[in-house]
Automatic annotation (TrEMBL):
PANTHER family: ALTERED INHERITANCE OF MITOCHONDRIA PROTEIN 24, MITOCHONDRIAL. It comes from the Bacteria. InterPro entries: AIM24, AIM24_sf, Trp_RNA-bd_attenuator-like_dom. Coiled coil: none annotated. It comes from Williamsia herbipolensis. This is AIM24 family protein. Gene3D superfamilies: Mitochondrial biogenesis AIM24 (3.60.160.10).
Amino acid sequence: MSDILNPAVLVGDDNVPHNSYAYYITLDKPWIMSKGAMIAYYGQMQFRTLMQGLQSGLLASIAGTISAPMYMGNFVVAEGQGTLIIGDRGFDINSFDLDDGNLTVRAANLLAFEPGLQLNQSIVPGYLTLIGTGKFLASSNGPVMFAEPPVRVDPQSLVGWADCPSPSHHYDQNWVNGFMAAGAAMMGAGSGEEQQFDFTSAGTVLIQSSEKVRDDADVVRTIETQIPALSQGGIRRIMATAQAHISQQ
């Protein structure tokens, strides 16, 4: 039987004892966390959407830390006193400390961060950039590996990257030009063997131990924002590609 939880054994900020899938925070200041990440808490707490907090004026100090309008609805602010326990559907949870750093993370993997960190929308669809000094929490499908560039990574395995420029796309022509790959490409298929993210400059790349992506809602939302700029022909082409994927699955 696992350990029985109580506030006395949950001191500081750390993973729940013998459980890498849950993390606890001693809440003595506001934290910004992913909507739905709270699974339990001890003490007295309240949770406000970012918009509610900003409109009420109670979170004026946080207003300058968010520069990602597309993702405002993804997060809430936890306030109060006590111990907050968060989780993410059974995925591993790790804490990371930035010291005047710059780290870009997949939006679906970002679970919580201290308001002292600035949150920006990355130019890479589906990713957010944290800048400054403070702690943040991120989930991953399996343990996280830290790799030094130059390295190429399957896009579905990429969690994020720190202190290095955004990656470029790399396509393996030998794979793409193969008969089977060409047939799959006609149906809209892709894989890490065909396409990778290419990191070349100094820094650190965070890679999860699986190709399974947690969620694609943020990528979908990014695509949706581009639709008004498309012609009817472009929209029809996207619809045909999406239908091919649906048929294949």
